[in-house]
Amino acid sequence: MELTTIWFLIVGVMLIGYFVLDGFDFGVGMALPFLGKDDTDRRVLINTIGPVWDLNETWLIVAGACLFAAFPEWYSTMFSGFYLALLLILVALILRGVSFEYRHQGKGREWTRWFDQFIFWGSLLPPLLWGTAFANLVQGLPIEELSTGGWIYTGSLLTLLNPYGLLGGVTLTLLCFTHGLVFIALKTEGDVRTRARALATKVGIVTLVAAAAFLVWTVLMHGAHPNVVLIAALAAVAAVAFIVGLIANLRGREGIAFAGNAVTIAFALLTIFAALFPNVMISSTDPALSMSIADAASSQKTLELMTWVAVFTMPLVLAYQGWTYWVFRKRISRTHIPAAAH
């Protein structure tokens, strides 16, 4: 296998890690107004992700760095085309992070309420915009090859807001919401856990309908694609994993339900990458103008150096993250939240 293909897969794995891990962070943030009956409940919800949310976000930073170094043409064209969407995502992530740190400053109910709103919207907008962006990558974008070299995106933000793109955004948002609710049930005790499981079932049913529609649409859209069998198989695994997760949640097996949701997100993203391959950006203007993996890639020596760095550093990163989750593995309840605590 060529290094260009290996790094295409590595970028995919980084993004899978980001959406599986930060995905439940988004879901917890979205659950705040639905499960937080009072401030103590909301503090319980926030504390389920308190030790790990910023660690989970580093996967996005690493994925962006890998994309920049391994596929500079893809990085530049996509980031210029999605500039406004990515700016909104960045603002939302900043507001969410600031809110986690400042909501507990004890300056009154209005102060706390504003930061709770920032957490909610800062958790809702990123998966909605990310899902819309990835769906448009699969559908194809108006990109053209420049005579001086490179590619340019000729559309606008409104170009991305098409039915398929919006369905992808809604689907990813619902997946993250369900993922977060199951994580809350996995990490809490008492009434919060019971209500999280009940809401996860309701949201999960809606998510199943949206995800099925998106995956079927994706398979039909790529009926002539050489990877159509692989695309259909990956989509089927995602659907089965989600159904298993729903059933496990109904039976109170939150660990299995969480794993099922993680597999769903992973295979949904693998479906998208399979639909893209061997391209990284598909041109809706003219398929011949699509940007291939080879077109977008850095030099062989750059990829070789990156590979050695990844071989030595990734095991350390994974070990540290695993250790962090092990340390903070215990469940949280209202009794763990003293009146004067964060």
Automatic annotation (TrEMBL):
<dbReference type="Pfam" id="PF02322">
    <property type="entry name" value="Cyt_bd_oxida_II"/>
</dbReference>
<protein>
    <submittedName>
        <fullName>Cytochrome d ubiquinol oxidase subunit II</fullName>
    </submittedName>
</protein>
<comment type="similarity">
    <text>Belongs to the cytochrome ubiquinol oxidase subunit 2 family.</text>
</comment>
<keyword id="KW-0812">Transmembrane</keyword>
<dbReference type="InterPro" id="IPR003317">
    <property type="entry name" value="Cyt-d_oxidase_su2"/>
</dbReference>
<feature type="transmembrane region" description="Helical">
    <location>
        <begin position="6"/>
        <end position="32"/>
    </location>
</feature>
<keyword id="KW-0349">Heme</keyword>
<keyword id="KW-0249">Electron transport</keyword>
<feature type="transmembrane region" description="Helical">
    <location>
        <begin position="164"/>
        <end position="186"/>
    </location>
</feature>
<keyword id="KW-1133">Transmembrane helix</keyword>
<keyword id="KW-0813">Transport</keyword>
<feature type="transmembrane region" description="Helical">
    <location>
        <begin position="118"/>
        <end position="138"/>
    </location>
</feature>
<feature type="transmembrane region" description="Helical">
    <location>
        <begin position="228"/>
        <end position="248"/>
    </location>
</feature>
<keyword id="KW-1003">Cell membrane</keyword>
<keyword id="KW-0472">Membrane</keyword>
<feature type="transmembrane region" description="Helical">
    <location>
        <begin position="255"/>
        <end position="277"/>
    </location>
</feature>
<feature type="transmembrane region" description="Helical">
    <location>
        <begin position="305"/>
        <end position="328"/>
    </location>
</feature>
<keyword id="KW-0479">Metal-binding</keyword>
<keyword id="KW-0408">Iron</keyword>
<feature type="transmembrane region" description="Helical">
    <location>
        <begin position="198"/>
        <end position="222"/>
    </location>
</feature>
<feature type="transmembrane region" description="Helical">
    <location>
        <begin position="77"/>
        <end position="98"/>
    </location>
</feature>
